[in-house]
Amino acid sequence: MKEYNWVSLGCGVIANELAQAMAAQGRHLYGVANRTHQKAVEFAQKYGVERVYERIEDAFADPKADIIYISTPHNTHIEYLRAALKSGKHVLCEKSITLNTGELEEAAALAEKNGLVLAEAMTIYHMPLYRRLRELVQGGALGPLRMIQMNFGSYKEYDMENRFFNPRLAGGALLDIGVYALSFVRWFLSQAPDRVLSQMKPAPSGVDEQAGILLMDPAGEMATVALTLHAKQPKRGTIACDKGYIEVYEYPRAEEAVITYTQDGRREVLREGRTGDALWYEIRDMERTVAGEADEMHLDLTRDVTELMTRLRGEWGLRYPEEEPGYAGKEPLL
Ligand SMILES: NC(=O)c1ccc[n+]([C@@H]2O[C@H](COP(=O)([O-])OP(=O)(O)OC[C@H]3O[C@@H](n4cnc5c(N)ncnc54)[C@H](OP(=O)(O)O)[C@@H]3O)[C@@H](O)[C@H]2O)c1
Questions:
Q1: Which of 14, 43, 103, 251 is the best mutation target for the ligand 1 pocket, counting ligand atoms within 8 Å of the beta carbon and taking the most?
Q2: I need a surface site. Which of 57, 92, 97, 234 has the fewest CB within 10 A?
Q3: Mind listing the domains of the chain with CATH numbers?
Q4: Cβ-defined contacts of 83-86 (< 8 Å, 24+)
Q5: Does 12 contact ligand 1 (Cβ within 6 A)?
């Protein structure tokens, strides 16, 4: 497989995981850039990264940089996406890729115009287990798909300044964890849902702390999604078909599922891939896609999920500062 020069824009929790995933394969990130330069210097020392950029824009200007990996807060993504794609760089961007559909379509148009790969780092689209389960569901072995249930609960301490609750950092359950639940749902549904009902409870900062979402696609396949940023829930997804149901454990980086064949009660345990390799699967699929060997990145599904989230926030009346008409409150990042 062709190897590319990756540059990490950001060096927080998930960027560390990416660097570790590369190291486990005997690879290194090529470059790193970060708002706080000193942290980039330390990150580079820790992971043997060749280039540390003085300014973030220097990464986009580096002809040796092939793929930019963005892992800064959601509301900063679009500015970095624009700059990277205009500079001819492929981009793998952490979830949620953009605040809304308008931003995503702008970035997708830039990528298309410049012949670049633009993708969201959505674990679910790359874990081998989900690929196997999707083949199983779409192949009809369990009969027609009827209902998906997906819960995601994460207990975050009440701190209205952190990225989970702060509207100025595009906080809220939907963009932080709902994006996983909806991507799981979309991965298995045969079409994008066109009917949507929901209830949302805001956090003290006004962003969505909890939500219940009910979806149906034109084929009548349905899904329920329960999200909370202030309580844990079992990490389990259920996919129910006519002749059986699938339970996925330790979602989203799942490696095990149990299939129950309801006609005879038989249970089958399916194991595929490794939780610990979750980020490596994303890197590998991105490189294969950039090399033109296959399109493994599923931007079409990212678009459907982003559209759903845009619609839901529209129904909740939840707009981030950047989405307010005439917004001029932020210093440019670049
Ligand atoms: N943590 C996870 O398990 C996980 C998993 C998957 C995806 N993600 C996604 O990855 C992204 C980052 O998550 P994280 O947990 O890695 O966060 P984190 O540890 O807080 O790191 C955030 C990074 O973004 C930079 N940053 C913060 N505010 C910024 C701003 N206003 N402008 C430019 N850069 C800024 C930080 O730079 P400084 O060093 O200057 O603060 C740091 O490098 C989020 O979009 C999240 O949804 C996280």
A1: 14
A2: 234
A3: 6-123 (3.40.50.720), 125-280+306-321 (3.30.360.10)
A4: 83/57, 83/334, 84/9, 84/60, 85/110, 85/111, 85/114, 85/116, 85/118, 86/60, 86/110, 86/114
A5: yes
